[in-house]
């Protein structure tokens, strides 16, 4: 959206037939009221260049806002503080370089390190693979790495060879996109490449989706999503499947099921859950499916299939034989219960049903009731329910 906005703004950064410099959403004459014949060419060029620079600045700010949620150490300069303070005992402990007079010091980080920090501590490395075991044993490593999955190989090698490490002194609870590099990459792709094309970009929802796919990476079965809407969560799921395939995990197909025409079917019209009837209509079934296929999913690699389904009345597609992850996001009581009942027999042992809507209460009380009824039914007994903040995980135990 940002890039498209910039193109629109630059396209409009011209002199129009009315001899005024016009901008997107700006009335002619708001930048200059001089007719073109009264304005020399250099002034025109300057004003055009100024507007284009403003467009660039606006784009840059927008990109920075989007990317800021993927920066773990934003506003927290690495190694600016090297003193641990214990408020209970009112004592301090320094881990500054002079604390280790006999050891060589290194910084290990994938983040920009200011020159003055490097000068005060030591050279910056992205990993310790190039160091000999003796070099590691005789060194102390100051470590601040974006994702925990990238930090673990460094920590293991330091431990293996008897080295010492000092972590960046930040003890805030982390989030899954900073735990798992593959999740970080998948979500960055969704936010930056297709964020303008989808909706419901809630970091917790997308993180939990990635975590479920990671937990089940060795579980047999496909990914099934019931309730696709504009395809935001489906895109992150497929981006994550692409990431897993790059590291050698078995390929999984994604089945994306929805009416693609909102809550217009008979069960929605007659539902006791009165909120949803007639809502969630987009562009009509065919155009919505085309939009998701050609716009949202245009750059993915993993196999996927969009199928128009009324989950209350229709069976699951015959091609779905076994499911490793089922993501259910259909809001309404009847649709949620039907989805749970229809996917549960196909869930592999260790597979996960993600129930998104029952956490959004009171607005989604219908989905909450459906989940409760499912879990107390014979079909729900093999599943263990875990509250994950923005979703419930139902893990098939047997």
Automatic annotation (TrEMBL):
One Pfam family of this chain: TylF
Database matches in InterPro entries: SAM-dependent_MTases_sf (IPR029063), TylF_MeTrfase (IPR008884)
Source organism, top-level taxon: Bacteria
Protein name per Swiss-Prot or TrEMBL: Macrocin O-methyltransferase
């Amino acid at each position: 959206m940002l890039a498209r906005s910039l193109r629109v703004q630059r396209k409009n950064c011209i002199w129009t037939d009315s001899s005024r410099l016009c901008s997107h959403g700006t009335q002619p004459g708001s930048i200059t009221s001089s007719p073109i014949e009264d304005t020399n060419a250099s002034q025109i060029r300057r004003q055009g260049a100024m507007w284009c620079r403003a467009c660039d600045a606006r784009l840059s700010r927008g990109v920075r806002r989007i990317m800021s949620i993927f920066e773990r150490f934003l506003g927290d300069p690495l190694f600016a503080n090297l003193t641990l303070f214990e408020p209970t005992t009112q004592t301090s402990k320094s881990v500054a370089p002079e604390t280790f007079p006999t050891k060589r010091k290194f910084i290990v980080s994938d983040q920009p390190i200011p020159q003055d920090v490097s000068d005060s501590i030591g050279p910056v490395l992205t990993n310790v693979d190039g160091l000999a075991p003796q070099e590691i044993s005789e060194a102390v490593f100051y470590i601040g790495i974006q994702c925990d999955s990238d930090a673990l190989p460094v920590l293991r090698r330091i431990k293996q060879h008897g080295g010492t490490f000092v972590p960046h002194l930040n003890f805030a609870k982390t989030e899954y996109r900073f735990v798992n590099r593959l999740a970080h990459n998948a979500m960055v792709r969704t936010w930056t490449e297709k964020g303008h094309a989808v909706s419901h970009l809630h970091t917790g929802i997308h993180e939990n989706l990635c975590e479920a796919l990671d937990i089940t990476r060795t579980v047999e079965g496909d990914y099934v999503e019931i309730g696709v809407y504009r395809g935001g969560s489906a895109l992150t799921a497929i981006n994550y499947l692409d990431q897993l395939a790059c590291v050698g995990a078995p390929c999984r197909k994604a089945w994306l099921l929805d009416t693609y025409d909102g809550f217009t079917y008979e069960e929605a019209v007659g539902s006791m859950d009165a909120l949803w009837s007639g809502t969630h209509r987009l562009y009509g079934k065919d155009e919505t499916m085309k939009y998701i296929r050609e716009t949202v999913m245009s750059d993915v690699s993993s196999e996927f299939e969009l199928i128009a389904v009324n989950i209350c009345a229709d069976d699951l597609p015959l091609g779905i034989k076994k499911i490793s992850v089922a993501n259910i996001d259909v809001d309404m009581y009847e649709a949620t219960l039907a989805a749970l009942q229809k996917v549960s027999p196909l869930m592999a042992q260790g597979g996960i049903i993600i129930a998104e809507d029952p956490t959004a209460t009171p607005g989604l009380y219908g989905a909450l009731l459906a989940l409760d009824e499912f879990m107390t039914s014979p079909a729900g007994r093999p599943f263990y329910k875990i509250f994950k903040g923005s979703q419930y995980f139902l893990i098939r135990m047997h």
